[in-house]
Amino acid sequence: MPDRAQPPVDRQLPTDEARDLISLARDIAQREIAPRAAEEEDAGIFPREVFTLLSRSGLLGLPYDSEYGGGDQPYEVYLQVLEELAAARLTVGLGVSVHSLSCHALANYGTKQQQVEHLPAMLGDGLLGAYCLSEPASGSDAASLRTKAVRDDGGPSRSSGAETGGDWVIDGTKAWITHGGIADFYTVMARTGEDGARGISAFLVPGDAAGLSGAAPEKKMGMKGSPTAQVHFDGVRVPDERRIGEEGQGFAIALSALDSGRLGIAACAIGLAQAALDEAVAYASGRQQFGRPISDFQGLRFMLADMATQIEAGRALYLAAARLRDAGRPFAKQAAMAKLHCTDTAMKATIDAVQILGGYGYTADFPVERYMREAKVLQIVEGTNQIQRMVIARHLAGPETHRTG
After folding, report:
1. By CB count within 10 A, which of 41, 84, 115, 373 is most buried?
2. What does the pLDDT average to over 12-29?
3. First and final CA of the chain: distance in angstroms?
4. Do the beta carbons of residue 111 and residue 61 sit within 8 Å?
5. Is 0.90 surpassed by the pTM of this model?
6. Rounded-to-10 torsion of CA 183, 187, 193, 197
């Protein structure tokens, strides 16, 4: 069967620098990521060396300020780089998105001193981050989290002699944490006050903190190379200098990060869907049945056309939301729409790709069965698609009216 390589996505990019970044991402994807993706995913191997390479190449901190080692790139560019990486291997694309999510709190709510002290290493020195919001009993209802941070003014402080607010001692368990157990730093939401959203604060916790441990990674349907694990905090002592934002501001910080993170998931989903489409087109063009390529049959051609149309629509949707963000305008509704549409598109496109390949699509000899297993999680992470519909509806019709009795 002939190998028909698909042309790269024709992208509209704002600058020559952006075009160079896309070329660099494609080169790394083709040379360092894609050739090992299937084997390493099957073996459950996390490609840490790829993240080190991405950091050295300036691709791990693209949307952040160059003053701290970032790339000074708009989200419009960062997301398209993310899409290219996810098309080669979702573990890498999603990992970059989660790392960016983990840096969001400090980059946007940290003090100047905190940013100078921590951000350069987080953005450009090969560190890998994790974002800790969900817990075993609080997923979609994130404001009900129970992990606690209690102030201990009498504890030994790690500060350098400056006046501090004492230390915090963190106890609890976070769940479904990407890079759990292997991250170099964790952005942690913990309860410091009253029940509900207003009693939550944000902390930057080093990965080697005493009392912090990762459980065994979850055994998952897909993305086996990306470790997802519970993270336990057993008397983890954190100086007040590592609290991000004001006490009680943590939930607002978390939601702000998720608005941007949902765009990252949307871009990853379109990258995965594009990879599935490319594989389906290549197969259909080479597979002969009844004396001609199966791509000649109208029913199959319509499937490919529908896949391509939904992928282009998803790309346009996440880019429109990104441009709103870049312009400093509200984008939460559009981010929810992009996450919803793009992840549903990835699920449908990968299912259709398996169908187009027939029996071969159900085997591990072709990547589409892996794509289909991986696509499912994108409809769940960073707010399920049911939650996205709730967010969109609130923007349209206002908050829900709660009735009792």
Report:
1. 84
2. 96
3. 65
4. no
5. yes
6. -120
